[in-house]
From TrEMBL, chain A:
Keywords: Cell membrane, Membrane, Transmembrane, Transmembrane helix
Compartment(s) where it occurs, according to its Swiss-Prot or TrEMBL record: Cell membrane
Transmembrane regions listed in the UniProt entry: 27-44, 56-83, 103-123, 130-148, 182-203, 233-254, 266-296
Membrane topology field: Multi-pass membrane protein
Protein name, as recorded: Branched-chain amino acid ABC transporter permease
InterPro entries in the record: ABC_transp_permease, LivM-like
One GO MF term: branched-chain amino acid transmembrane transporter activity
Species annotation: Nisaea acidiphila
Entry GO terms, CC: plasma membrane
Cell membrane as UniProt keyword: yes
Automatic annotation (TrEMBL), chain B:
SUPFAM superfamilies: Periplasmic binding protein-like I
Chain ranges of the Leucine-binding protein domain: 33-401
Gene3D superfamilies: 3.40.50.2300
CDD domains tied to this protein: PBP1_ABC_ligand_binding-like (cd06334)
InterPro entries, sorted: Leu-bd, Peripla_BP_I
Family label: Belongs to the leucine-binding protein family.
Transmembrane region(s): none
Protein name (record): ABC transporter substrate-binding protein
Keyword Zinc on entry: no
Length: 357, 442
């Protein structure tokens, strides 16, 4: 019904290759963009910004980065938390060393730093695969966090907890306590939209196809003339770039202060990995859906159990542990390919509604 | 079939989102909102539970006995954080406008969370009471107008420990050449005293051994091997949660004399020593208040709350160190609210009024007696400029056979000149970094 494509013809290659070829998808996207840019900035408050939208958007950003590495290139990584910390601490060093620098530039530069570190820790991927690589990247997680807690240069010889200084972008304050929720929201939204667009194009082009061929069978890919060294390291670089920017956004915009051992510990790595597994490996939409599930489900359950039903917070927390865990298992049994695949199936059904098969 | 399930899932997601929109609408009239960030789950729950119980029981007692603070009931709203900074930020944003009064004060209960909330709460004009933890330099009220960390801070406590050691060794000049080990939680919290201790090591000529322990602190074999090799004369510990009891057990295993092992006041509760059994006998810890349940206020809690079946925890555990500390937080909060009502002459108070109430806290021996807490702690006075209050520190000792803590020292006055100088330096750096103009205090 909704997704019936009858009458939508492609007359040239450009039309055939556009990002959203189906008319209904364009309408959906237009509605989302209108709400995101035209409605939310005017009604957003502190709670919606700090507790719901910013966590969702930064985790979507980080999940997008990890999905490039794990979902598209097939290189399992457990070092996400460590790379997020690299982004946060390098952006802290950059903004405190060059107070005049534009925050956007500083954050992109910190993404660059993280990309370099990611390539370094991606080197073992040329020799080892699968679980063995997961363990090697786990070493990155532990080493990086240890380093940011141990070496005082990274936190300017203060306490190991770093605090984001207030910074303006084009005359509007976006970091620090006085920043308005709307400015912070739009700042992160801008990053997310731009880099999602980049990722969408990257994964369907030459580079993305090379990643996927390495993922599906590296020996065959090599025979086809794809260089594993270049391709794998590029995946590590791009993925870490995204993750580093995500870490910098968590630090500057969402939390305003982080401590490496607490904010970017091993649980963060698992959190993002779960997000992409539940959302759907090898799918940009999956990163969004997975981040929404992992970041917003606990908040939603809390609202329902504590504020509506009036449960004691600690009991609600225990029930939340049980429910979130069960929901993860439920989703993975019902749809091992994640929420993104579920959405795809829904679309197929809607195409043939009311008589899907 | 599959379609219906998907639709249901989508509908459920929509309902949850709608719920979040609606939640701010609930208003609780005729009551003051006092939120409390608690952790009854997670790695630090054994310590978080008694803290939270003491806090809520005291306010429930006030509600039952006096009808609240100055006749207005107090609604303590707990938010479960699991000692997680990100969840705590969500809790803070969720609760700051709760009820008619809005949040009147926040107790973050974690140094990391305190750091995260300091800039935001100052902007929202809600005071933060980080009682004996958090950012030490927040003791400078000119730079941190909304942050309170009285009765004393980590830095003051470290200097008091050095004074205690000096006294036991027979004079401050005897400290020269002594070796003191600091076993600390490897986080911003655990690192707090290092600067002060290093400064004092320079002054008195003792040697400082720094031994970090990573979260959560179950694995300390290497640390205690280093202690056996380094043979320190004294050990200080800045630990929290399971780290404390593991350290005490390890110290017992290497037969380190317990009366030369001093924990910070977060390393000195029943949870920390009981698992080590008789071996923990004689272990020392700093404290800011007396242990035990021998106080009128606690008798009132038992009578008005527990006898009616409304207690938050087990009655047998009332009077434990962390329970009393939670209660003390509630006492200070209630007194600040009372002061705020008096100063502003209205019962319609908000967070910024309670801030003024905190700055007017001036509790004498007689005031503590009026509160039913005779000899619970020393008099305390907060000013606009000094949010630390310069309270003294006592040393308590664990008596394993009796199963209770006893205060064994005089109330030690910290080295205010040393600490105040470090506080001023650090707060000035913070002010410069964040474009804050310190306010005038006279």
């Amino acid at each position: 019904m909704l997704y019936r494509e009858t009458g939508q013809f492609k007359r040239n290659y450009a039309a055939d290759q556009q990002l959203f070829p189906i008319f209904q998808d364009k309408i959906l996207l237009a509605i989302i963009v209108t709400v995101a840019v035209g409605v939310i900035p005017f009604i957003i408050n502190d709670y919606w910004s700090k507790a719901i939208l910013l966590p969702f958007m930064v985790y979507a950003f980080v999940a997008l980065g990890l999905n490039i590495l794990v979902g598209y290139c097939g290189q399992i990584s457990l070092g996400t938390g460590g790379f997020m910390a690299v982004g946060a601490y390098s952006s802290y060093k950059i903004v405190t060393a060059f107070p005049e620098m534009n925050l956007i530039l500083a954050i992109v530069l910190s993404g660059g730093c993280t990309a370099a570190v990611g390539v370094l820790f991606g080197l073992p991927s040329l020799r080892i695969k699968g679980f063995y690589l997961a363990v090697a990247t786990l070493a990155a997680q532990f080493f990086l966090i240890w380093m940011f807690n141990k070496v005082p240069w990274f936190y300017n010889y203060e306490m190991s907890q770093i605090t984001a200084p207030p910074r303006e972008v084009f005359g509007v304050l976006v970091s620090g306590p006085q920043a308005s929720p709307a400015a912070q929201y739009l700042f992160v939204l801008g990053f997310l939209a731009f880099f999602t667009w980049i990722a969408l194009n990257l994964v369907r082009g030459r580079v993305g196809r090379a990643w996927m061929s390495i993922r599906d069978m590296d020996i065959a890919a090599e025979l086809l003339g794809i260089k594993p060294l270049k391709t794998k390291l590029l995946a590590f670089a791009v993925s870490s770039f995204y993750i580093g920017i995500g870490g910098a956004l968590i630090f500057h915009i969402w939390l305003g202060t982080v401590e490496a051992t607490e904010a970017f510990d091993i649980l963060q790595s698992f959190f993002v990995l779960f997000a992409i597994i539940i959302g759907g490996l090898g799918s940009v939409l999956g990163a969004y859906l997975g981040a929404a599930f992992m970041a917003l489900m606990p908040v939603g359950l809390k609202v329902v159990l504590v504020d509506w039903i009036g449960m004691v917070p600690v009991t609600a927390k225990h029930i939340e542990f049980i429910l979130v865990g069960s929901l993860i298992i439920f989703f993975l049994i019902k749809e091992p390919h994640g929420l993104a695949r579920m959405w795809q199936i829904t679309k197929e059904k809607l195409r043939l509604w009311p008589f899907p098969y | 079939m599959k379609l219906t399930k998907t639709t249901m899932a989508l509908a459920a997601a929509g309902v949850i989102a709608g719920a979040a929109w609606a939640e701010t609408a609930m208003a609780d009239y005729d009551a003051y909102t006092v939120p409390n960030l608690v952790y009854r789950t997670g790695a630090y729950a054994p310590n978080g539970i008694p803290l939270a119980n003491g806090f809520i029981d005291y306010f429930n007692m006030l509600n039952e006995r006096d009808g609240g603070v100055e006749g207005i009931k107090v609604n303590v709203v707990e938010c479960e954080t699991g000692y997680n900074t990100k969840v705590s930020v969500e809790c803070y944003e969720n609760l700051k406008n709760e009820g008619q009064s809005g949040a009147l004060v926040f107790n973050p209960h974690s140094t990391g969370v305190t750091y995260a909330l300091i800039p935001k709460a100052s902007e929202d004009k809600i005071p933060i009471l980080s009682m004996g933890y958090g950012r030490t330099s927040a003791a400078d009220g000119t730079v941190f107008p909304y942050i309170f960390n009285f009765p004393t801070t980590y830095w003051s406590q470290a200097s008091a420990f050095i004074k205690y050691v000096g006294e036991k060794e027979g004079g401050m000049d005897k400290l020269k050449g002594k070796k003191i080990a600091l076993v600390f939680h490897n986080s911003a919290y655990g690192k707090e005293p290092i600067k002060t201790l290093e400064t004092l090591a320079g002054t008195y000529g003792f040697e400082l051994m720094l031994l970090p322990v990573d979260h959560p602190g179950q694995e300390q074999k290497a640390t205690w091997l280093q202690i056996r090799r380094g043979k320190p004369d004294w050990i200080f510990m800045w630990g929290w949660g399971v780290m404390n009891q593991v350290a005490i057990k390890e110290a017992a295993a290497i037969r380190f004399p317990m009366d030369k092992f001093i924990g910070v006041w977060w390393s000195g509760s029943e949870n920390d020593v009981a698992p080590a059994g008789p071996a923990a006998n004689g272990y020392l810890a700093g404290t800011m208040h007396a242990p035990g349940s021998d106080f009128q206020a606690i008798a009132d809690i038992k009578k008005h709350v527990y006898a009616k079946g409304n207690g938050a925890g087990e009655e047998a555990r009332i009077g434990e160190v962390l329970y009393n500390r939670g209660m003390l937080e509630a006492v200070f909060t209630a007194e600040a609210m009372r002061n705020a009502i008096k100063i502003h002459g209205t019962k319609d108070i908000r967070g910024e009024h309670v801030r003024d109430g905190f700055e007017a806290i001036d509790l004498s021996e007689a005031d503590f007696e009026r509160l039913g807490l005779k000899d619970f702690m020393k008099p305390i006075k907060i000013t606009c400029e000094n949010h630390e209050g310069n309270g003294p520190v006592a040393i308590q000792q664990w008596d394993a056979s009796a199963g209770k803590w006893n205060i064994v020292s005089e109330w030690i006055e910290p080295m205010h000149d040393v600490v105040r100088k470090l506080v001023k330096e650090d707060s000035a750096a913070y002010a410069a970094e964040n474009n804050i103009t310190p306010r005038k205090c006279s």
